[in-house]
Amino acid sequence: MSDILEINSIDLNARGVSRYNNKVVFVDGALPGEKVVVDIVRKTKKYDLAVLKQIVTQSNFRKEPLCKHFGTCGGCIMQHIDPKSQVSMKQRILEDNLFHLGKINPDFILQAIYGLDWQYRCRAKFSVKLGSKKSFVSIGFLERRSLFVTDINYCPILHNDISKLISPLREVISQLSISRNIFNIEVSIGDNSVIHLSICTSNQLSYTDKSLLLKFEKEYNTKCWIQRGKNQELYQISNNDRELYYSLPEFGFLMHFNVNDFTQINHSVNRIMVSRVLSLLDIKPSDVILDLFCGLGNFTLPLATKARKVIGIDINNDLIVRASNIATFYKLDKIISFKVVNLFEIEMNWFSKLEIFDILLLDPPRDGAFSIVKSLSVCKKKFLPRRIVYVSCNPSTLSRDVNVLVYECGYTLKCAGVINMFTHTGHVESITVLEL
After folding, report:
1. H/E segment holding residue 237
2. Which of 152, 229, 363, 390 has its CA 20 to 30 A from that of 168?
3. Which residues contact 61 (CB under 8 A, 6 or more apart)?
């Protein structure tokens, strides 16, 4: 039997949220402000799941999706929402998490950082599946809540040069002897339009395989790598000098990286984000800055143009090595020092072993920085940094960590705002500023 619900909000999975019989109901495809007819398909003690049958009253936010794979492909779940409205909804999600999980509201909301609505994504991981007939290879993204691959020829959020590579990539993969043993293909494009591909497989290339990939490299201005073995090491197919880099033109840096390195997928928004973060840090020339989860040095190098000293720390040794090389190339090695530390397992007294620093920048993965903020909570106030800027990709772990910084360390939550790094997806990136 169908029910009629009014949708009040939206969650991180772009599901409409309603209440029915004193229980939360999640409705795929429904938007805030809509009245919808639904069928309840799953009931639990805390919530119900429903499927959308009919829209009785349609939201002004609703928009016709551009991609024909919308609803099947698991990549974009918000294409049916106007892009500006997506940002407003993500801002609401951020504020709700800070209030309900962090038990705090920011003093004011930062203006959101916007980018392109389409063709913004400079990095992706394609799933690969060989059909029953060896000549047919599916390349694309996993379907929603499924292990099936949505076979695509074009993706409107990918950089256009990556999209144009999908069909020829499918053709060359179908000819390889290892095609049945390819799990995925990571692809990255640099600001110089060079594309690198990392083919993850359990098999070695044959001579013919290598010849085919060398021809592909030459024809499509790419560089191919094979990722295999227990440690998933990368092996290059050729010694061609097509290097990847993204630029930070405000600071004059070219950031060279490898195809499997973590870098921001949206280069244009990343440039705006770096500039915004540096302005929010309020850096003085005499400052010592600690940059945790620094990776390739995306923030570390720009920080070194403003501060007396910057310490960059990350768990990934390969990234730290590359970051150090970039710093040396730009003659910043006397200002920057890099260290490899597992920041998820630091001791409570870890900060007492460091030199006193003035500002802290946090840019953790989705798990957040709980061990960091708990370690800060046992520091004497005179040793705490005067300002913390927290760049987050997960509102729930951010809110958990902010709760500790406010109620155990004594910080004030000055401001917070979203970064629309991933348009049309449910990912909520944000910047939060805390002050003593």
Report:
1. none
2. 229
3. 31, 32, 33, 81, 82, 85, 89
Question: Domains along the chain?
Answer: 1-62 (2.40.50.140), 92-116+266-435 (3.40.50.150), 123-244 (2.40.50.1070)
Is the Cβ–Cβ distance between 167 and 153 less than 8 Å?
Answer: yes
Asked if 73 is an active-site residue, the reply is no
Rounded Cα gap, residues 378 and 58, in angstroms: 52
Q: Has 251 been labeled as part of a binding site? A: no
Residue of 122, 200, 224, 393 with catalytic role: 393
Query: Rounded to whole angstroms, how far apart are CA atoms 43 and 286?
Result: 59
Would the annotation count 111 as a binding residue?
A: no
| Position 106, amino acid | P
Instruction: Give the model's confidence band at 165: pLDDT under 50 very low, under 70 low, under 90 confident, else very high.
Output: very high
**435 and 406 Cβ atoms separated by less than 8 Å:** no
Is 0.85 surpassed by the pTM of this model? yes
Q: What is the pLDDT of residue 132?
A: 62
pLDDT number for residue 353: 87
pLDDT, mean of residues 40-55: 92
Q: Report whether 367 belongs to an annotated binding site.
A: no
pLDDT at 1: 67
The sheet with strand 23-28 has its strands ordered as 3-6, 35-43, 47-57, 23-28, 15-20, 9-10
User: Helix, strand or coil for residue 63?
Assistant: coil
Say which range, 161-165, 226-230, 259-263, has the weakest mean pLDDT: 226-230
Beta-strand ranges (E) seen in 31-165 are 35-43, 47-57, 108-109, 123-130, 137-142, 149-151
CA 215 to chain centre: 32
C-alpha 217/C-alpha 213 separation (Å) is 6
Question: What are the residues whose beta carbons fall under 8 Å from the beta carbon of 371, sequence distance 6 or more?
Answer: 343, 344, 345, 346
User: What H or E segment, with its residue span, contains residue 146?
Assistant: none
Residue with tokens 């551009």: 66
Instruction: Confirm whether residue 401 is marked as ligand binding.
Output: no
Please report, for residues 99, 153, 184, 201, 234, the alpha-carbon distance to residue 173 in angstroms, rounded to integers and kept in the order given: 49, 14, 11, 12, 18
Task: Give 377-435 pLDDT, tens digit per residue.
Answer: 999 988 899 999 999 999 999 999 999 999 999 999 999 999 999 999 989 999 999 99
> 370, 367, 304, 298: which is closest to 333 by C-alpha?
304
